[in-house]
Design a protein that fits this description.
heterodimer; A: 237 residues; 7 helices; globular; B: 65 residues; mainly alpha; 4 helices
Chain lengths: 237, 65
């Protein structure tokens, strides 16, 4: 018998699968092609939704870090850590698909233009965040340091988002204005919804594993404590 | 226009495969974590049974080794 919580997440899983399949069909069949970029333009339906999911993940890190500093509850810290991991995963999707798209259109896999550079910087910042968590010495101090870092690192998000407008058009390779037809917008919306649902699903699984890990560590501590204190006074002497 | 309909198909396939690999890799990592937790649970349940926590009786040391 499934609990209500499990039913909700099973629903999210099936909705994500359905939307994902619909997005693949829409990206390949429903949405019209672009005459100059050919099929490479259809990378848009993976690249942009992954970027949206990554920014959502980093916004979650920001909010969960604030909540952790205010309330001090470990669940907020777990949420921030899981969201940071997922942000890195979705950023990696962006950084993999972007250069593959760029190669036939710009003639090179990578150019040091504002959007690409700021995205790479964002990725590196959150890798640093995870390194703080991994190699921090004292757990409670590490969590607080990570939370502060998670809040400060969020300053990168507006930089990435507005990078195409902050710098002059001559320095940009990303378009400053994108005009998509109705079908393209619908396909992009469905693909974005699929990625966002996938993000929430993976976030839920990751946080659950972390909470379970905590509970297990407590049980292991209790168990080892019981074993060491089992000796009755006078038993061994 | 047969050639233009397949223009850059290899790039599209590469991008799709790349995205899929990154996401599948993360799911695999989550699966490994879950597996490790399951092993810790097994170990914890196993260690709480009296037969495994009992110290060896005098003279049984050789068999334990």
């Amino acid at each position: 018998m499934r609990t209500a919580d499990e039913r909700v997440w099973a629903g999210v899983l099936w909705a994500s699968v359905f939307l994902g399949l619909a997005a693949v069909w829409m990206a390949l069949q429903y949405a019209p092609g672009e005459p100059h970029m050919g099929l490479a333009q259809r990378i848009l339906y993976v690249h942009v939704p992954a970027a949206v999911a990554a920014l959502l993940a980093f916004a979650t890190v920001f909010l969960a870090s604030i909540a952790y500093l205010r309330a001090g509850r470990p669940c907020w810290d777990h949420l921030a850590a899981a969201a940071a991991e997922l942000g890195i995963v979705f950023s990696a999707v962006v950084l993999v698909t972007g250069p593959i798209w760029a190669r036939p259109i710009w003639g090179a896999f990578w150019r040091w233009e504002p959007r690409l550079t700021s995205m790479l910087l964002l990725f590196a910042t959150y890798v640093a965040y995870l390194m703080i968590r991994r190699y921090g010495s004292h757990p409670s101090q590490m969590r607080r340091t990570a939370a502060v870092f998670g809040i400060v690192a969020f300053a990168n998000i507006p930089l990435v988002y507005y990078s195409v407008r902050l710098w002059a058009a001559g320095q940009q390779l990303h378009p400053q204005r994108v005009d998509l037809c109705q079908q393209m917008r619908v396909a992009l919306g469905v693909a974005t919804a699929a990625f966002v649902l996938l993000f929430f699903l993976l976030l839920h699984l990751d946080v659950r594993l972390r909470l379970f890990d905590d509970a297990l560590a407590e049980l292991e501590d209790d168990s080892s404590l019981n074993q060491t204190t089992k000796v009755e006074p006078g038993d061994g002497i | 226009m047969e050639s233009s309909s397949c223009q850059y198909l290899d790039y599209l396939v590469a991008a799709g495969a790349g995205a899929w690999l990154v996401l599948a890799g993360f799911v695999w990592i989550l699966g490994r974590r879950q597996h490790r937790l399951a092993r810790r649970v097994e170990k914890l349940c196993g260690s709480s049974t009296p037969t495994q926590t009992e110290p060896p009786k005098p003279g049984e040391g050789a068999r334990w080794r």
